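### Sample
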Amino acid sequence: MSTAAFDTPIDDTGTALAGPWRQPRQMLHAQVYDSHASIHDDATAQKLGFKGGTIEGPTHFSQFAPLCERLWGQQWFETGCLSAHYRSAAYEGEEVQAIVDKPADGVRHISIRMVKRDGTEVLRGSASVGTDAPPSALDQRLTELKPLTDAVILRDITVGMATAPQTVKMDADQHMGELYPFSLADKLKVITEPSPYYHASSPWGRPIIPMEMLSVLFQHVSKQDGLPVRGPAVGLFADQEIRLITGPLFVGESYRIQRKVVALSGSKRTESLWARTEAFDSSGRLVATMLLNSATLKDSYAAYEQEYAELKRGA
């Protein structure tokens, strides 16, 4: 007997599907980033102008899973893609809602968004299935970036830099390190949209890793990459895309990952490193990718003003 992927209540408005209002849990209070607290620590976040420790962006991806599964069924878990530009931070205790546009018959690419009760947009982007889907929201965003100039924190980074391959795995009770001080089992106790597929009852005969936790799987060894980003400094996720190519990915299975710098961009407050992570299974098949814009806050790098001045003098 088949088991339903989710029992999440979904509201069909005719033009869109909307999930229920949820209060995601913040699990990164104890995160250590560059040997210091991160943007998810209340004191650090407030020092940098945020209300408190922020909910990590990919946490929100789980709320879209039931909506996309309603549209595309099992294909969502095998070739699904979520591509999001994070627009405002969410904090523990706030309610947020995931909304996806309904596609015309046969269309496999839609717009998505998440909002707070007051209408503030937390993220917007696209969802799709299939390796031949149209360009994603971040595919499009990459073509519109303003190049980074006068880089300080990222001055030693160049587009095309690649990391050495690393092997990663996520067991159910595995502590995922300083960046992610919890386990998959811990996450599944509080995940906004539980599913039997994340345990034993999946169509693939074994537990699958939720899409939000693929971000953890791919990032938890990122500090060993050796990319010459100057620090210590505080960063945040500004854009993120997770794409399944031959999915799903499984609990307890080893994957080989490699990261490549695909773009550098900047704003008044940040310097951004865009990296694409590729994940391969034991047979060498590409199974998933993640595109991530890690935006480092200039104000969090103590030597920023001094090094910027030196850079301008030497120009």
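The chain has a mean pLDDT of 90. This sample (N-terminal of MaoC-like dehydratase domain-containing protein) is used throughout the tutorial notebook.
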